[in-house]
């Protein structure tokens, strides 16, 4: 089976990171803390201006990309899946937006370094915009995509199965070909069941 895996929100707990560091920035900058947890983007989640959102990512994005720990058991489960002859395609919409000027142009390098440093195995790493993710899934004959971003879940599930990694901002996303997972071992179990094992 060919398995597509997103990074932010799937391999990394983006939701928790943004809440932790966003509230920290609010306190340090004396911005009012307002949270709307069912929103995906930081601007809407915190009721920030464009400038506040940009300041947040300019401050924290490089640290997030290089130093955040993977989700519990993600490395272990991916190793098991590869040993069982599944192919792992990491498909991410990461781009240069939000990187400080001195690091601009290095997102792919930083992402490869993070995967290597954390021992995350894969067969192919694909950088594609959110709008291109479905196209990349089709082009690479992906059987199932593991995703958290609501728009991508809905778009990709029109053509292939999607495992939705449960987050507060995607709780209401439902539909045909969408299966909700709550942990990496839950993902493992879902894939085994889909393969009839």
Q: What do you see in this structure?
A:
The structure is a single chain. By secondary structure, the chain is of the alpha/beta class. It has two domains: 2-12 and 71-194, Rossmann fold, CATH 3.40.50; 14-67, no CATH class. Helix content is 43%, strand content 14%. It has eight helices and six strands. Strands 3-2-1-4-5-6 form a six-stranded parallel β-sheet, sandwiched between helices. Helix 3 (50-67) packs across helix 5 and helix 4 packs parallel to helix 8 (184-194). The longest helix has 18 residues, at 50-67. The radius of gyration is 17 Å and the shape is globular. The mean pLDDT is 96.
Task: Summarize the topology.
Layout: E1 2-5, H1 14-29, H2 42-46, H3 50-67, H4 74-83, E2 87-92, H5 107-117, E3 124-127, H6 133-139, E4 144-147, H7 150-156, E5 161-165, E6 178-181, H8 184-194
Parallel strand pairs: 1-2, 1-4, 2-3, 4-5, 5-6
How helical, in percent, are the residues? 40-55%
**What letter string, H or E per element, gives the SSE order?**
EHHHHEHEHEHEEH
Q: Profile the largest sheet.
A: 6 strands, parallel
List low-pLDDT spans.
none
Classification by helices and strands: alpha/beta
Write down the overall geometry.
globular
Instruction: Provide the domain count.
Output: 2
Nearest-integer average pLDDT: 96
Output the number of helix runs: 8
CATH architecture grouping of the largest domain: 3-Layer(aba) Sandwich
CATH class of the largest domain: Alpha Beta
Radius of gyration: 17 Å
Strand order of the largest sheet: 3-2-1-4-5-6
Q: How many strands?
A: 6
CATH topology name of the largest domain, in short, is Rossmann fold
């Amino acid at each position: 089976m060919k398995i597509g895996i997103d990074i932010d929100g799937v391999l990394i707990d983006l939701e928790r990171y943004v809440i932790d560091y966003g509230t920290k920035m609010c306190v340090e900058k004396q911005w009012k803390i307002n949270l709307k947890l069912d929103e995906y983007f930081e601007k809407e989640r915190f009721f920030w201006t464009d400038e506040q959102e940009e300041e947040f990512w300019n401050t924290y994005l490089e640290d997030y990309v290089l130093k955040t720990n993977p989700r519990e058991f993600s490395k272990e489960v991916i190793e098991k899946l590869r040993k069982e002859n599944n192919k792992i395609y990491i498909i991410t919409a990461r781009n240069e937006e939000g990187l400080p000027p001195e690091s601009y142009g290095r997102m792919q390098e930083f992402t490869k370094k993070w995967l290597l440093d954390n021992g995350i195995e894969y067969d192919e790493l694909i950088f594609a915009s959110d709008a291109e993710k479905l196209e990349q899934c089709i082009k690479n004959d992906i059987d199932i995509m593991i995703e958290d971003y609501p728009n991508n879940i809905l778009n990709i599930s029109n053509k292939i199965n999607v495992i939705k990694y449960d987050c507060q901002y995607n709780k209401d996303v439902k539909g045909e070909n969408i299966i909700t997972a709550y942990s990496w071992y839950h993902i493992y179990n879902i894939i085994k069941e889909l393969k009839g094992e």
